[in-house]
Amino acid sequence: MKTKIDILQRLFFLITAAAVVWGLYLAARAPGEATQGDAAKLLFVHVPAAITAYLALGVGLLAALWYLIRRSPAADRMSSSAIEVGVIFTVVTLVSGMIWGRAVWGLWWDWNDARLMSTAIMFFYYMGYLALRRSIIDPEARAGRCAVLAVIGFIQIPIVHYSVLWFRTLHQGPTILRPDGFRSTMDEEFALSLAVGIMAFVAAMTLMLTSRLTLSRLQDARNDLSGLGPPVGRGVTAPFMGGPTMGGPTMGGPNG
Amino acid sequence: MTRRQIVLPALVLLAAVIVLLVWNNLGNNLVYYLTPSEALEQRGGPEAGGRFRLGGQVEEGGIEETEDGVRFAVGDGAASITVVHTGAPPQLFREGIGVVVEGAWEGGRFHSDVLLIDHDEQYRAPDGEGAYEVPAGPAVPAVEG
């Protein structure tokens, strides 16, 4: 039986595939940039990936706030799924940026650059968030603590974004979200490719987010069926409550 | 004393130490490079003789190849410093492009061993000013037969 979600998923998949193909075609057809040559085509991957990461982590923030107000498991699922997807796009941003940096600046990485360092710290912070989710068994405690972490962590997004304006960096200034508007930074040839690139990445993010949400919902539903929380939780919180336990049936116990 | 009473202060302390470390490191590196004007100003300062990064534009009319690198002038419109670089310059290196070099003063010159290209966020089609030209590589002999 097809649910509404399935149909939406298929639609998102088609939109994503079309945008990716269109974006690749435009990127291949775009001229090499005046100073950087073909290396500047990484613009069509790197900038959309960064914007998509900000967007996903922003969804993570809003859902976390929603959780803290309403204590709704759905908000927790939305927040954690969005942050997971945001981390993936942060990786894409870092990797495409490193390749671009090697091609144009002449180095893969430099810890002294404020943009590079703040992005790396943001990445490790949200990796920590994902690790925390795995280390708390009680669903409510996990959701509450992770929501607080997601809210505090979002302060890093403006720091990462404005680092290139606040500090003198090797990294260039913002391309799109900048004080004087994006029109000033590029010729038409590049603007369309970049716009389609952003569309493709946002569509892919939506697709990944909805898939992850479906998975989270199924996981939560399965855990609810047992009525006792996840099996690991039962094992850790109440290992020996009398009666036959691990190690086979025992005779002569207090309840035996 | 509950576990919370021990763990919470420990976490706060740990966070404080991390913030302190990051902040100290940031303090030294908030400025990725010095402009030629700043570098000349600070020359006699307390950190004279140390390594630092110098950033600016490669000035027109002065890239000389040397035995083991290149010699050129880096300027910011107000001041200019002669840079003696050891090592092969990157592919995009040319007159007028932004560079960051890393090294130290040696006499009146800046001796560098790291040469980075520092471009801005302007993306221009090649028919504009400063047109991009495909660097001339070694000619590929035509395959015969």
What is the overall pLDDT average of chain B? 79
Report the oligomer.
heterodimer
Largest interface: A-B, 33 and 30 residues
What proportion strand of chain A? under 5%
The total of helices of chain A stands at 8
Instruction: Detail the poorly predicted runs of chain A.
Output: 245-256
Which structural class should the secondary elements of chain B be placed in? alpha+beta
Report what the structure shows:
The complex is a heterodimer of chains A (256) and B (145). Helix content of chain A is 70%, strand content 0%. In chain A, helix 1 packs antiparallel against helix 7 (188-226), helix 3 (73-104) crosses helix 5 (139-153) and helix 4 (114-135) packs antiparallel against helix 5 (139-153). Chain A is built from 8 helices and no strands. With 145 residues, chain B is α+β, with helices and mostly antiparallel strands. Chain B contains 2 helices and 6 strands. In chain B, strands 1-3-4-6-5 form a 5-stranded mixed beta barrel. Chain B is elongated. The relative contact order of chain B is 0.13.
List keywords for this structure.
heterodimer; A: 256 residues; mainly alpha; disordered C terminus; B: 145 residues; 5-stranded mixed beta barrel; 2 helices; 23% helix; elongated
Question: Quick recap of the structure?
Answer:
Chain A has 256 residues and is mostly helical. Chain A is built from eight helices and no strands.
Topology:
The complex is a heterodimer of chains A (256) and B (145).
Chain A: H1 4-29, H2 43-70, H3 73-104, H4 114-135, H5 139-153, H6 156-166, H7 188-226, H8 231-237
Helix pairs in contact in A: 1-7, 2-3, 2-5, 2-7, 3-4, 3-5, 3-7, 4-5, 4-6
Chain B: H1 3-29, H2 36-41, E1 52-58, E2 64-66, E3 69-75, E4 80-86, E5 98-106, E6 109-117
Parallel strand pairs in B: 4-6
Antiparallel strand pairs in B: 1-3, 1-5, 2-3, 3-4, 5-6
